[in-house]
Structures are given as structure tokens and as C-alpha cells.
Write a structure and sequence with these properties.
Mean pLDDT: 95
Number of strands: 7
Distance between the termini: 40 Å
Strand order of the largest sheet: 1-2-3-7-6
Radius of gyration: 20 Å
Low-confidence stretches: none
Order of helices and strands: HHEHHHEHHEEEHEHEHHH
Helix content: 40-55%
Shape: globular
């Protein structure tokens, strides 16, 4: 969680300095969800994420160097510099996006799950999405087919209470999203998304059931983003008192305090972790600064087929 937090804090500085361009959606405040869920997954499982996916990618094990280079748009990035912040991808680690379209990853997850079942692969396809995506038709179509076909999908709804700038009570008649998801005939429950240990327990329980043939599961992670929707967002739709109230539940602080109380983490250990994370992030920035741009000659690479004379 500290790696994600410090990585994104550095991205804010780099964006402000014009080093990172385009849209950037920060995950600060929601780290417990990505970390807790990924702890319950195996390398054979697959992850489909949203455009707010830096945390998912880092928690999945994609090196900070590869992610930062992608943020810079450099050729050494995990998507070759072609995707940027919203399109991180690493097939080797079975991390299938990064998707700029709201709810766009949901049908992809169902397709991956169907393929896994047809190949008799005992894996879980984990799909992250937000409460805004829950209102899209893609969620309901995917949930229906996943339940109908008993696909091995773990639906992880990151309910941070705001679909861009719209509060959940202004776009959902029933705000208990787990209750609605259960209507499709799948196991569904809500989780404290600010508690990484609660997230890990819920995700492990769901993943084990899915691997045992229990069909799709839905977890409503009740969480909160401390920053605006994106770096372009003036964030005028939330009460500052509400933000401060949620910051009091900071998932990094909660775990740190709990571990200190249980004598599992000392000040020197914490300082060592902070030092390693800072060094890792700074090394990633330096590597991204030095990395090459993609040659102009490669402009049509991966765009047209070899049959058309291009590679």
C-alpha cells in the first residue's frame, strides 16, 4: 500500500511539472482494495481493471519501472508507451488492462472466464470496476451471463460513492449494490474497503468458492478516493468535511496502527519500508527519464497487418 501511495504522490508532482500528460486518475485512499484482493489471487488468475489502475498494476506485481515508463509514454513501458496512465497491460502477469471505457472491462472478464472454463483451467478472473460502471448495461449483461453460465468471475466493485462527480444516491435508486447483485443468483456481500485485512479475507473466501465451482461472486468494496476524480477535476461536488472524515479511515494508517498495537511493526521497520519504497519510486522516475521514445518509423506497428505491407 505504501508503494502505491508514494508512487502516485510522485505522479502528482510529475504531472504538475508536465512530465506526465493526458488523463491521470489517482487511486490514493483505495489502496486496501487492490492489495487485499491481489493477495488472494494466484499467478494463474487474471485481472481486468479500470482506468484508475495504477494500484491494481503495482499490486499485481508489474514493476514500478514499467508502470512509470508507461506514464511517461516511453517505449520501455508495460504497454510500449502507447497506452499511458489508463491502459496499463501485462499479458505475462495476466493483467488485461487498464480500460478507459467505463464498464468496458466487464465483458472482457466474462470472455476470459468462459475461455478458462472451456479449457478446464481452474483460475479466477477478477474484474475491478466502480459504482459508476455498475449503472451501465455492460455490468448487468455480464452479471446475468456469468451467473447463467456459472463463470469463474470475481466481480470487485470499488464503490467510492462518486461516479465521476455524481454521488451514488443521485444515480442509484438502491444504493446497496451487493443486495442488487445478489438478485442475479450469485453470492454477494459488502466489505469494508478501507481495511486491507478485511478485503483479503473476503477476496480469499470468494476466490476459493469460485475455484470450487461456486460460480461468480460479487464483492462491494466500500471505499473512498481522497483525491479528485482526475487531475483535471476541480472537485467541487464533495464536502471537505466528508473527505476529512474518510481520511480518518486511511487504510495505510489503519494497518500501520494495528501492526504497531500488536507489536508486529516497529518504527525502524516502518522507516526501512519507507526508504525502500522511496528508492524504488525514484529509480523508476530516473529510468523513465532516460528511456527512449518509440521511433517514428514504428508509428504503424501493431496497427496494420503484415499482409498489408506493414509490420
Amino acid at each position: 500500500m505504501l508503494r502505491i501511495r508514494r508512487f502516485e504522490e510522485r505522479c502528482v508532482e510529475l504531472y504538475s511539472a508536465g512530465k506526465i500528460r493526458g488523463f491521470v486518475h489517482l487511486y490514493i485512499g483505495e489502496e486496501a482494495v487492490a492489495v487485499g484482493v491481489n493477495e488472494a489471487l494466484t499467478p494463474e488468475d487474471a485481472v481486468v481493471a479500470t482506468y484508475r489502475e495504477h494500484g491494481h498494476a503495482l499490486a499485481r506485481g508489474i514493476p514500478a519501472d514499467d508502470v512509470m515508463a508507461e506514464m511517461y509514454g516511453k517505449s520501455t513501458g508495460c504497454s510500449g508507451g502507447r497506452g499511458g496512465s489508463m491502459h496499463l497491460f501485462d499479458a505475462g502477469r495476466r493483467f488485461y488492462g487498464g480500460n478507459a471505457i467505463v464498464a468496458g472491462g466487464l465483458p472482457l472478464a466474462a470472455g476470459l472466464a468462459l475461455a478458462a472454463r472451456m479449457r478446464q483451467q481452474p483460475c479466477v478472473i477478477c474484474c475491478f470496476f466502480g459504482d459508476g460502471a455498475y449503472a451501465e448495461g455492460e455490468f448487468h449483461e455480464t452479471a446475468n451471463l456469468a451467473a447463467l453460465w456459472q463463470l469463474p468471475v470475481l466481480f470487485v466493485c470499488e464503490n467510492n460513492l462518486y461516479a465521476m462527480g455524481t454521488a451514488i444516491e443521485r444515480h442509484e435508486a438502491q444504493t446497496d449494490l451487493a443486495l442488487r447483485a445478489a438478485s442475479y443468483g450469485m453470492a454477494a456481500w459488502a466489505v469494508d474497503g478501507m481495511d486491507v485485512e478485511a478485503v483479503e479475507r473476503a477476496a480469499r473466501r470468494a476466490a476459493e468458492s469460485i475455484r470450487g465451482g461456486g460460480g461468480p461472486h460479487f464483492l462491494e468494496m466500500r471505499t473512498y478516493r481522497f483525491r479528485a476524480h482526475s487531475m483535471y477535476d476541480p472537485d467541487r461536488y464533495r464536502d471537505k468535511a466528508e473527505i476529512e472524515e474518510w481520511k480518518a479511515q486511511d487504510p495505510v494508517d489503519r494497518l500501520r496502527d494495528r501492526m504497531r498495537d500488536e507489536h508486529e511493526l516497529g518504527d525502524q521497520q516502518l522507516a526501512d519500508i519507507e526508504g525502500r519504497v522511496t528508492q524504488e519510486v525514484e529509480a523508476a522516475v530516473e529510468a523513465a527519464e532516460q528511456a527512449p521514445e518509440e521511433p517514428v518509423a514504428d508509428l504503424l506497428r501493431h496497427v496494420t497487418s503484415a499482409a498489408g505491407g506493414m509490420t
